[in-house]
């Protein structure tokens, strides 16, 4: 039995269509990778080595347009167990634009000031659980991570210092935060 030329033509046109589709998909993958991949450098705004807590600016290195929103993150490291070699993991307490982080830190400072003499006062600021704690005469404000498992804790003076460093950094970098 001999195949008709018409059938042969259909097989060739399907193969050509498949090649064109695969080529189009490959080109669109390459274009999307270049279009959507971004490279950041973490610029430190605040750091405390004792608790491994940081406030960082996610500075976009390859910025084709200037309309990108500046992103900041309050994050740190915690331990699964007592070893810094095998036990640390990264936690995120808050991440947002300069304006969101400013309002978050300002609200923490206001909350800390208002309830500085209270114990176990709980609220949510920008969706993050925040709580006061008095222990052995020391007064702290706890900010929980996004999974509400661990906290970063600072006193009123330390939270004010974090806000001051953030405002100073944004002013020096000409980043609008209000």
Describe this structure in words.
The protein is built from 3 helices and 8 strands; from the N terminus they run H-E-E-E-E-H-E-E-E-E-H. The chain starts with a helix and ends in a 5-residue tail after the last helix. It is 38% helix and 33% strand. The model has no long low-confidence stretch (mean pLDDT 84). It is elongated, with a radius of gyration of 26 Å. Helix 2 (98-114) runs antiparallel to helix 3. The strands form 2 sheets. The chain has a 4-stranded antiparallel beta sheet. A 4-stranded antiparallel beta sheet has the order 5-6-7-8. It has helices at 5-36, 98-114, 156-173, and strands spanning 40-48, 53-60, 71-79, 88-97, 122-125, 128-135, 138-144, 151-154. It has 2 domains: 1-37; 40-173. Strand 1 and strand 2 (53-60) form a beta hairpin. It is of the alpha+beta class.
List the main descriptive attributes of the protein structure presented here.
3 helices, 33% strand, 38% helix, 178 residues, four-stranded antiparallel beta sheet, alpha+beta, single chain, 2 domains
| Shape field | elongated
User: Topology as H/E string?
Assistant: HEEEEHEEEEH
Q: Which sheet architecture does the biggest sheet show?
A: 4 strands, antiparallel
Widest sheet: strand ordering: 1-2-3-4
What is the total number of structural domains? 2
Helix share, percent: 25-40%
Rounded mean pLDDT is 84
Q: Uncertain runs with pLDDT below 50, 5 residues or more? A: none
Computed structural class: alpha+beta
Radius of gyration: 26 Å
- Gap from first CA to last CA: 80 Å
